[in-house]
DNA sequence: TTATAACCAAGCAGTTAAGTAGGAAATAGC
DNA sequence: GCTATTTCCTACTTAACTGCTTGGTTATAA
């Protein structure tokens, strides 16, 4: 799993789109202005997002972008995977040509963890983020008071 | 939160160390050999890990590395944060000099998500990973038999 | 004394990030 | 049809980062 600033830009832009996308399409120029991301870079990101049907572009004057599906059906993992291409790393080249079991075991453990992270991000939707964030919106200060059971991973973590 | 291949290397190395660190220290040369990571790169990673007291080095012949604490007390977030320095990104420069509330709101949402990911990774310890992974060790194949409905842990290979 | 292995620092090739530049194609309003 | 708008597309650029190499220095067990 790659989680870089590129993915952050994409999530930020999608959040912006979801927030103000109620009536009519949102132009990239607006997002660029609001979020401080260069227009051309946004275009590149949205080319990726469009390729995965996460957004839908409307050309011409009055055009812009819509969400490709409802915010309830777009997960953070969807967004990040669209722009940060998943690099299928080592895991012994996909085959089991490890010299001994140790290397392969370690890679398996990492693979499991990687899937865990992926599933976790896949369980968070744009709608959830917005709904949850809206509750603490007053004051524009992010106070991280964390007793939030709603977004925590499903109970696969501690047992198998 | 940054989650790059650098962090993956660090987690892999720490897993290796935890796995074979029962009796005596483990040399970086062994980890390098087993995991296929260059020795010098390991040295750089372990310099970071040592700085955060996640490992303890013993010089001289017969030397090597121990875990800095028990595997139960080392989380994945600890490891990743040690090598992938947390970049405290935008959030409007830490202050609330947003032009309007929108930008700030989006940043807050990202901040929340970022904390969520961090807490998630912080809730997984090396010991948990190993204990859980050991159960499905037979065959050296990571079988993702999670019953995740919407998520596709396998479909990212064909997403290209 | 010597071999071992952690420590340290400078630098390098390749990749990626993020942005720039300059368009082409679609479309609403005139 | 013309024009402005806005998506869409391609190529290039600068800076940063990754992963690795080289060449050391210390500490220490034998």
Structure, described:
The structure is a homodimer of 160-residue chains. Chain A contains 6 helices and 2 strands. Mean pLDDT of chain A is 74; it is low at 93-97 and 135-160. The longest helix of chain A has 22 residues, at 101-122. The first copy, chain A, has a two-stranded antiparallel sheet. In chain A, strand 1 (55-58) and strand 2 (64-67) form a beta hairpin. Chain A has helices spanning 5-20, 28-35, 39-51, 76-83, 101-122, 126-135, and strands at 55-58, 64-67. In chain A, 48% of the residues lie in helices and 5% in strands. Chain A is mainly alpha-helical and 160 residues long. In chain A, helix 1 (5-20) packs across helix 4 (76-83). At the A-B interface, helix 1, helix 4, helix 5 and helix 6 of A face helix 1, helix 5 and helix 6 of B. Chain A binds a DNA duplex (30 and 30 nucleotides) through helix 1 and helix 3.
Could you spell the SSE succession of chain A in H and E letters?
HHHEEHHH
Q: Which percent bin holds the helix content of chain A?
A: 40-55%
Q: Which two chains share the most extensive interface?
A: A-B, 73 and 65 residues
Tally of alpha and pi helices of chain A:
6
**Content of β-strand of chain A:** 5-15%
Poorly predicted residue ranges of chain A: 93-97, 135-160
């Amino acid at each position: 799993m790659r989680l870089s600033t590129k993915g952050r830009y994409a999530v930020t832009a999608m959040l912006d789109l979801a927030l103000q996308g109620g009536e009519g399409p949102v132009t990239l120029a607006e997002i660029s202005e609001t979020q401080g991301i260069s227009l051309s870079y946004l275009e590149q990101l949205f080319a990726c997002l469009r390729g995965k049907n996460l957004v839908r572009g409307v050309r011409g004057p009055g055009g812009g972008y819509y969400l490709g599906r409802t915010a309830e059906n777009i997960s953070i993992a969807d967004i990040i995977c669209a722009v940060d291409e998943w690099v299928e790393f080592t895991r012994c080249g996909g085959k089991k040509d490890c010299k001994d079991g140790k290397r392969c075991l370690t890679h398996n453990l990492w693979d499991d963890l990687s899937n865990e992270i992926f599933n976790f991000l896949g369980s968070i939707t744009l709608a959830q983020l917005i709904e949850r964030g809206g509750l603490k919106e007053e004051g524009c200060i992010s106070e991280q008071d964390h007793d939030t059971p709603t977004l925590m991973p499903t109970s696969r973590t501690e047992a198998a």
